[in-house]
Known about the structure:
- There is one protein chain.
- By secondary structure, the chain is α/β, with parallel strands linked by helices.
- The chain has a single domain (about 5-145), classed as Mannitol-specific EII, Chain A (3-Layer(aba) Sandwich).
- It has five helices and six strands.
- The protein has helices at about 20-35, 40-55, 110-120, 125-135, 135-145, and strands at about 10-15, 55-60, 60-65, 65-70, 75-85, 95-105.
Amino acid sequence: MTLTDHLTEGQVWLNFTAGSKAEALAALSRLAAEASGLSPAEVLTVLSAREELGSTGVGGGVALPHGRLPGLTSPVLGLALAPEGVEFDSLDGRPVRLLALLLSGADGREHLQLLARLGALFKSPVAVDEVLAARTPPEVLALLARY
């Protein structure tokens, strides 16, 4: 299983903008709902509950908002590129420029595997910079497939 198994061009959002973490989570919820048929409110509830446990802004300009929805039969990924940055209460205090969204169903093991892959990939500043430099969703997918 690779990240691109669960990510389509329609789930890569270029030029993402938000004025705050709350706005970013709401926008991601709407985008994920459009891509998956889920309810935006349901997605926002799950993402917000996870953020209450601690920020998913992991540092290095990256956030990994995620959550589990028991009725979801297949993971939903989304990748938002925010060149201007979004204040996200990141661990390093820096704005987030890349937000990798993960929603999974009841299988906690699959959720953790995908989250670990996202974390490992975007721990690399080179990978983050390459993805942020991509101009189209197909370019982003090609980069992810290469990694």
